[in-house]
User: Fold this.
Amino acid sequence: MELQAFVARRVVTPEGFRPAAVLVDGERIQAVVSPDQVSDRYRIRDFGDAAILPGLVDSHVHINDPGRSEWEGFETATRAAAAGGYTLLVDMPLNCLPATTTVAALQAKRAAAHGKCRVDWAAWGGVVHDNQGDIEVLAAAGVPGFKCFLINPGIDGFTMVTEHELRSALPHVARTGLPLLVHAELAGAIDRATAALASADWSRYSTYLQSRPDEAELVAIRLMLSLCREYGFRLHIVHLSSSHALPELRAARAEGLPVTVETCPHYLHLSAETIANGATLNKCAPPIRSGENREKLWEGLRDGTIDFVVTDHSPCPPVMKRLQEGNFRTAWGGIASLSVALPLMWTEASKRGFTLADVAHWMSSGPSRLAGCDTRKGRIAAGYDADLVIFEAERDFAVREDRLHYRHTVSPYLGETLRGVVKATYLRGEPVFSEGAFPGEPAGREYTANQKCRSAL
Ligand SMILES: [Zn+2]
Assistant:
């Protein structure tokens, strides 16, 4: 096995950043030493002023494969991921067909991924209205946790769960010890608001925003916190958009409930006030809210109430965004951002006094813990996979289509100038992205948190 030394002035380790050499033996990090301690047995890769970050982990991605690979697919999603500095993606159980709610569906996903992935991947299992009996078998088959919706997800093949159905599922979830990821919006407030907006102008972003009020998130989170208290399972709130929920989440933490929270780059970068009428590329659910709300989400990150940041990369064929008619009611909700999430976050974080160590914490070690891969992924330390991002933190670039790399190159960020360029990404010691190119054959593997159980099946 080749010995390599990745050297830079800023290497982001769990202790902060410093000049260092990351010594790599084959696929793993051997040690992190000072640059003058590298022996001549190592092939030196000196990145000078660029920073070296741990490979990013995205625990919230919709790859849509198998079944809707015309929307995205393993090949294009993992290519965009490599270009964005990600080395592990965890796929959501919906949008693909079959949805990942049974072991047979998980096997179909494994077949679809085979030989196509440029980065490592894993798959969440789904909890839907009728698959309570599949939960523990899915855990044994290697999923790192589960996802459910408290509101209709708006796509065929995946159902929401009512509180009653959830109560039948939760004892199973609790027994697995794995987290339950929850899309926390309840229909009541949304249905009421939407009914009142029947004759409103749906080309206006403000109409869409009014149709998905903060209250829908707040009551859903309240319900989940009380179920978490009752059943003792690990609760994870996905894509928090409403800052109104932060005080109760903070209190739940203080109480010792096992709850974690994520938000997304679009909620931290965009704001409702600047979304033009008809600009449906900005539609997602829950919605992008006010600039004031955005600043409170940043405060939530600062004080640790929000644990980390994931993309919720959710592409679709451009026609579904209804760009011609610009109708926020009928357009598909979802924003794709795998290839630009790190620069988006760095642009905003650096303005607010955060460091690259904060960004690595939010985008690598945090999500790796949720996905149960934090003994192998998420930090630059001895024994970890040699997953590294070479990041030119002081360079700006303009977002153009040729920077996106996913299947359909539409984005609300086109034309923006962002701070920080991903120069290269290394997966287990090998380059998977370098200066705009994707060297080598796809070498990504499935990461199963539960290898032992999987081989026992
Ligand atoms: Zn999602």
Summary: Residues 60, 62, 92, 312, 314 surround zinc ion (CB under 6 Å). The chain has 13 helices and 17 strands. The two ends are 32 Å apart (CA to CA).
